[in-house]
Amino acid sequence: MTKWCFNYESGEYEDIDKDGYSWSRGEYVYNWDDSEYRREEEEEEERRRSQDEDDDD
Length: 57
Known about the structure:
Blueprint: E1 2-7, E2 12-17, E3 21-22, E4 27-28, H1 35-56
Antiparallel strand pairs: 1-2, 3-4
């Protein structure tokens, strides 16, 4: 699944997957804003921690 992310190299928003592959360009990009993916990972980790704490009760 891709997200609409800003590519600093092109100066444009593109469909980029978690690994940095730009489906808009058809190539990997290396200087792009991956904050949406990082935020999603942090939220998932927080859910796991919360669930683990609930399971310990």
